[in-house]
Design a protein that fits this description.
Strand 3 (96-106) and strand 4 form a beta hairpin. The longest helix has 17 residues, at 121-137. The radius of gyration is 17 Å and the shape is globular. It starts with a helix and ends with a helix. It has helices at 5-12, 30-40, 66-71, 121-137; strands at residues 43-50, 60-64, 96-106, 109-119. A two-stranded antiparallel sheet has the order 1-2. It is an alpha+beta fold. Helix 1 crosses helix 2. The chain has 4 helices and 4 strands; from the N terminus they run H-H-E-E-H-E-E-H.
Length: 138
């Protein structure tokens, strides 16, 4: 079967790469070289998130795209992609920069990392919703 570049990236991508994950081009497969090249184009200072399933405590994170970096989205605006303030900067809204412990599974291995996310007060409440509900029940 024929694999597209997107299929290769999905199977070879790593959210975070360690120094030992970096391989010399002459020692790496084409798939690894492609994934490593893509990782090099990502802007990894701030992540953006999707809080669609915030009540279950689940949310998605990804690194910002070049367009988001150039526009300031996720750094000067709310980092929740579903928030109205993600693309519209509102100087009246106080943004909060959070460093989140992000646990995830990649290629069958459990991993964790600290990731910076900028959120407006409304999205910060969503992010903390499950944790606050658990504290209330204790």
């Amino acid at each position: 079967s024929f694999a597209t570049e997107f299929d290769i990236l999905k199977s070879s991508h790593k959210f975070l790469r360690e120094d030992q994950d970096t391989v010399e081009p002459h020692n790496a497969s084409w798939n690894d070289q492609l994934a490593q090249k893509y990782y090099g184009t990502l802007f990894r200072e701030f992540a953006v998130c999707d809080l669609k399933h915030y009540k279950s405590g689940n949310f998605a994170l990804r690194w910002r795209t070049e367009a988001e970096v150039l526009s300031g989205a996720g750094e000067n605006t709310c980092g929740n992609t579903r928030c109205e303030r993600h693309t519209n900067q509102d100087p009246a809204v106080q943004l909060n920069t959070m460093e989140l412990p992000f646990a995830y599974e990649e290629h069958g291995e459990r991993k964790s990392a600290l990731v910076k996310v900028v959120l407006c007060p409304r999205c910060l409440k969503k992010l903390m919703w499950k944790r606050n509900k658990e504290k209330e029940t204790q």
